[in-house]
Amino acid sequence: LTMSWFWLYLPLHLLMATCLCHSVKAPTTSSQQSFKTDLFNFYHSLILADGKETTVHLLKDIPKRYYFVLEEGRVLAPFSITVTPCDVPIEWSILLYKSPPGFPGRATPGDHDTQEVSKSQKAPSKVSTIFNYKGNSVETYMGMSSHSALYLLEFLSTERDTHITVYLTTDTTSGHLYPELPMDPRIDVIGVGHTTVTLTWKHSPSVLQHRESIQYCLLVNEKHNYKSLCAAETAIRSSGMKLPPTLALSLSPYLLEPQQVMILSNSELSIINKVSSGEVRQVCMGTRNTYTVPNLSPSTQYYFDVFIVNLLTNASAAYTGTFARTLEEPEPKVTELKDGKVIHVVLDGKKQKFYSLQYQARHKKIHFTFQLCQGQIRLDVTRNGKTVASENLSGLRYLSLKGKLLDTYLVQLRSTEESNSSVKVQASPHFHKPLFPLLPESLKIKSFSKLRTCRSVTIAWLGTQEESKYCVYRKRIEEDQIWRELQSADRCSGPESRHKSEKVLCKYFYDLNLQRAVTTETIKGLEAGTFYLFDVYLFGPSGIPVRYHSKVVKTRKKC
């Protein structure tokens, strides 16, 4: 079935001439007025392309019309129209125009006599509404035409400006633009955890036929389900996001916005959009029809939508969305803190992210000490249920609090990354013997580039007003090991974890004038053009060491 544009345009000229002629000569009857209304709608309409998805922009309360024509020549000519609202509900209808014998629209070539046309104008065209819909669901109308006919599509948005997509096809035998949905398009929730939800859905017939160009994409959000991918993209944009004009879930590369995070692992593309109403997560997982959504928040309701996407055309079809609520986070086990006792807490970022310690005060003033050993940890301290401290730990942290006798303190530690994190904790009255030595203003080690030679390096570090013991260690490393050594260093470990050959020296020093409490040391016997990792350990009265920040220095290659 083809579209006969020549057949269409020829009557248009006759219709225009008829309209102009009779606006002057003939009195207006109800049938003529109806005819002119039909002409007005016709002339203010656009041609709807066959076999192509058309984006239509609608202004509030202003109808927009498109038309198409089916010509004679085939008995029972099939056609289908699919309309996808991309935001608010819309109204749309299909009008069928049938012209009686002698009507200008059925004029034959050569029948261009103006007098004949004016006579035939008295017989109005027959108009019937064959389909009408109001809502925001994706709707498809399939029809059969057994005669030559003109169809008019009218679209209207009464809520606000919006856009839709329209797809007309008269070729129903050579495949579909949109991927096919299974007979049962529901998404099943087969598992719910504290931070995960497992979903499964039936395979699309399109996956079996076009596996290389078809894939499933999942949208996760905390607001509601979406009936089309077009609607989901519009909602994300209205939240302040900027998405690419093409399919947001396709694997085509594009620049991400600052509030977007892309994760690519195990052939999965994940895009996380940080929006005001929570995060919107998009995951494309190829042709797998089972997926476990990770890293969700406990006790939170999420909405899940699966789209089957044709990567060649960017066309998509939506499964029936579902929702699930993650389980509540179990109450963490609480460990009692005793006066002066040190507890070493290790948090597995993937399994155990929380750890709680409880301390009951026997004095009004309480002194907490935290030494971050590895990773990143968030600290929250409450007194009788009220928050008194909340921060990210860094290095060594002293926290002094004043309250009442028998106040109950709850210390909550939370890992903020997936790798292991650890921290040492001590609680004691203010007059208790300090666990850690007096610390300098900075725990950084400085090296002097001008004093570097092929065989030696000079380093310096700050001391305190208290006489303390300092031990220097060195370790030869390769350039590609530097980042790993600095990131994996356990800042709570002492010299007992080091090899004896790495020890350089130990020394005591202090200065009552803090501005002069600086010491330097030249380490000799090194190899030219080599990287060395230097560590300094500070020992206080209790014997527990504090490790300065590691320093990497390279000796000169030529001298």
Explain what the structure shows.
The protein is mainly β and 559 residues long. It folds into four domains: 44-99 and 126-174, Jelly Rolls (Sandwich); 178-244 and 278-330, Immunoglobulins (Immunoglobulin-like), CATH 2.60.40.10; 334-428, Sandwich (Jelly Rolls), CATH 2.60.120.680; 445-554, Sandwich (Immunoglobulin-like), CATH 2.60.40.10. The protein has six helices and 36 strands. The strands form eight sheets. Strands 12, 13, 14, 15, 17, 18 and 19 form a seven-stranded antiparallel sheet that branches. The longest helix has 21 residues, at 5-25. 25% of the residues are buried. Pfam families: NDNF, NDNF_C, NDNF_N. This is Protein NDNF. It comes from Mystacornis crossleyi. Residues 179-316, 437-545 form the Fibronectin type-III domain.
In short:
With 559 residues, the chain is mainly beta.
User: What is the overall number of helices?
Assistant: 6
Largest sheet: 7 strands, antiparallel
Sequence stretches where pLDDT stays below 50 over 5 or more residues: 1-29, 101-123, 242-267
Give the termini distance in whole angstroms. Answer: 86 Å
CATH class of the largest domain: Mainly Beta
Say how many strands there are: 36
**Range of strand content:** 35-45%
Mean pLDDT over the full residue set: 79
Structurally, how many domains make up the residues? 4
| Rg, Å, rounded | 38 Å
* Relevant CATH superfamily of the largest domain: Immunoglobulins
- Going by helix content, strand content and strand pairing, the class is mainly beta
Helix content: 10-25%
3D shape: elongated
**What is the fold-level CATH name, i.e. the topology of the largest domain?**
Immunoglobulin-like
- The CATH architecture of the largest domain can be given as Sandwich
GO cellular component, one term: extracellular region
Domain Fibronectin type-III: 179-316, 437-545
Keywords: Glycoprotein, Neurogenesis, Repeat, Secreted, Signal
Signal peptide: 1-17
